[in-house]
Amino acid sequence: MTATIALVDDDRNILTSVSIALQTEGFLTRVYSDGETALKALIENPPDLAIFDIKMPRMDGLELLRRLREKSQIPVIFLTSKDDALDEALGLAMGADDYIAKPFSQRLLIARIRAILRRAELAQAPEGTEPEESQGPLERGRLVMDPARHRVTWGGNAVTLTVTEFLILETLAQRPGIVRTRNQLMDAAYQDDIYVDDRTIDSHIKRVRRKFREVDSEFDAIETLYGAGYRFSEE
Predict the structure, then answer these.
(1) Rounded to whole angstroms, how far apart are CA atoms 155 and 138?
(2) Can you tell me the distance from the alpha carbon of 64 to that of 62, in angstroms, rounded to the nearest whole number?
(3) Vertex 167, ends 161 and 4: CA angle to 5°?
(4) Which of 83, 140, 201, 212 could form a disulfide with 219 if both were Cys (CB 3.0 to 4.6 A apart)?
(5) SS3 for 166?
């Protein structure tokens, strides 16, 4: 079935351009220019995924997400400005699935949408059933990753990662001890030749470390090799 994407942004240009891009890719779209109007519609007629701008008048994206999560667990992607690091962290802690910084590539947004919808579909599969072409859980010491259902635990404690963070960690954990360059991690996390700079990968690694240290203050399994890249150690 065709997925429905809800767009919530007070910038009409973004609503129009992103809506057209999504429709070209075969998605159905609904657009809302303010959070209050969107909230009622999202609850009464949930889409398959929603995209929220953080900075909006009357009701910003964070408040919209907070109130939406009281009623619904639909996947949400945040659109943020480059200086919204605190808002990004709050949004992810509140249950956002991923974030994309403005200005953004529409190809990147569409790739993230497809990845999140795929993982949402697999996560809803009944326990004990294995999706077609899925791989089993990846276990590395205290780390367990279930790619099919986008679940991560460390020492039995759940760790919530965005799709991008999951792909980066999965790439590192697949071959412990092997150094992955930033370019290799970019290739794993960003498809279709989408360009991101080195600092983007560094930022994701920093966030992943912080999330794991929330459940284990001594977490040090992701090592930095200056001038080379990163590697995962299961020791």
Answers:
(1) 14
(2) 5
(3) 75
(4) 212
(5) helix
Structure-block tokens of residue 9: 């942004």
Look-up of token digits 């498809």: 191
Give CA angle at 153 (149, 157), nearest 5°.
130
Angstrom distance (rounded) from CA 122 to CA 163: 14
Contact 178, 231 (CB under 8 A): yes
Identify residue 190 by its one-letter amino acid code. Y
pLDDT in tens, 128-145: 555 455 567 899 999 999
**pLDDT tens-place string over residues 10-65:** 999 999 999 999 999 999 999 999 999 999 999 999 999 999 998 888 898 999 99
DSSP result, 88-129: HHHHHHHT--EEEESS--HHHHHHHHHHHHHHHHHHTSPTT-
Q: Looking at beta carbons, which pairs linking 148-155 to residues 24 or more positions away fall under 8 Å?
A: 148/122, 149/119, 149/122, 149/123, 149/125, 150/119, 150/122, 150/123, 151/123, 154/212, 154/215, 154/216, 154/219, 155/215, 155/216
Token look-up 């997925």 returns 3
Phi, psi of 116 (to 5 degrees): -70, -40
Half-sphere exposure of 122 (CA within 13 A, CB side): 19
Runs of H (alpha helix) within 25-69 = 35-44, 61-68
pTM, whole model, 2 decimals?
Answer: 0.68
